[in-house]
Amino acid sequence: MATAAQGATHTGERAIEVSSTRDRQMLRAFLEHDRLRAAYAICDLDEKEFGRTRWGVAVEEGQTIAVVLEYTGLTPQPLFVMGDPVGVAAIARDVVRPRLVYLAAEESHLPELEKVYRIETGPPMIRMWVDRASFRPVTGLALRLLPAEIGDLNRLYGLGFTSWLPAEAITSGVYYGVRSGGKLVAAAGTHVVSHSARLAAVGNVMTHPDHRRRGYAQLTTGAVTQELLRTCDQVVLNVRSDNPPAIAAYRALGYREHCTFEERLARRRGAAWDSIVSQLRSLLSPHRETH
Q1: Do both 87 and 157 map to the same domain?
Q2: Which of the four pLDDT bands, split at 50, 70 and 90, describes residue 164?
Q3: pTM for the full model?
Q4: Angle of helix 216-228 relative to helix 244-252, nearest 10 degrees?
Q5: Could you tell me the residue range of the domain that residue 43 belongs to?
């Protein structure tokens, strides 16, 4: 259930109440208004992920108008927003308040959120999706990865230590890879899977630089997708809008574009910091005489 209101914002004639909430039924009902855009957040309502999340909700005239999700434990902390921009900004200001975030928002949210966060620039992202009807598998040999191969997987990702991606990620998710000369040279896996929502997100797609342009990303992504579609109704993934080869590869698998969104690094504004920035700008700006 939602907690007692923690704050309210008044914009013009609008009175929006904001609060924290753990009401999964209410959150699921709101997020299902755009199931594909909210896929990650819907999956995070599952018991295994829910404990890592914080949620805020905005209500106007008795109706939920916005939701904000903070996924804790990571730095920067993922922050997903959905709904009315003013409601979203009110939640971010008064309820869900991480300092450094990796923001996932629609372009229309940015003007209001920039009152709360300093948001870096970046290319838009594309949310793509596929179901059993549209999926087109590709031929080739990609092998399901085992938890014992976590070291090889993390070395491929350029990290070289197993604590970043634990073996449990392979156990609870789906990862496929391609080996050349015994070395893991390409892999794809899952960010999150919800068996209750019958929904999953593909991610962590990587090919070693020496083995690119051989179709391995498409092959491993296709293998992961095919496995997920045995139990999921839809599978989604994100791709940068300035990466035409990747977009083409996913389209060849039957993925379709659902929406674009902004995925940006953002730092919370603070009175002290903004005061310093304001003074620096004043000192650096050209001197103007008054007459």
Answers
A1: no
A2: confident
A3: 0.87
A4: 40
A5: 7-124+263-270
